[in-house]
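Session log. Operator J.P. requested a structure for one protein chain; no other inputs attached. Running the standard single-chain path with token output.
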Amino acid sequence: MQYTMNENQNVKVIVTDLDGTLLNAAHAISDYTKTIFQELYKQGYTIVVATGRHHKDAMQITDHLEIPVYLVTSNGARIHTPDKALYYAFDIQSEAIQSILSLDIDATITTVLFKEEYWLTNKQNEKLNSFQKELHYPPQIVDFKQVSDLSGIKLLFVDEDHHKLVQLDQQIRDQQPSSFETCFSLPICLELMDKSIDKSYAIAKILEKENSTFQQTVCFGDGFNDEKMLSQAYKGLIMNNAQQTLKDKLPHLEIIGNHHEDAVASYLETNLLNLVEKL
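Structure written below.
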């Protein structure tokens, strides 16, 4: 279903995920996408990038847009304003992280704890490292049993075997049912946050600051960490390359093209920029 012109005039805020959504197959923003977002900014739209990535990593990517953007990172644990000032921050306490790491976790799974300046991990993971074209947010390989301060922004588990992560997800839900929220940002990535943290909650803070509401947003995403923001948006759009389980859970939402085809920028050019030209 396409918008009518009058309906599209309601949109003031554009929210997009990064990996599997705005970024191409090389984990980068294409020149075409950059051009479209620069034009949207010129026309007065507020741009919000909402990602599971750490802010040090994400800022290096969004800088390529060369426009001011709000940045929601670590699935909502950090918000930075368009001038890169820290607007909101939340950390999980060390004891809470310890309660998860004390579970019987398969030793082949890569465990990652996001800290402010670096990330701790139990092993080298080339697939994970490939998401950073330049290493602005460096890893430190550690034995988590020897780390005294486990407080952090987010906990991440990575494995090529999705089934193993599903089993771990159920294990966490069974033993820690009230403290944490888990989701699959990708089939190989199980993310764990405090229950008070979600992209949608962070976006709501930005919308309040901008005197806007979710009814004035268009949101793009591909993972379960995008589910709530997609559901609440005036127009939620799911990438064709998204997990099928997400598509099945939100069957009323429109599915657009693939991230490697610049589908976000193409949709926005057709449905927002071309609309303005016609008006």
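Operator note: The two ends are 20 Å apart (CA to CA).
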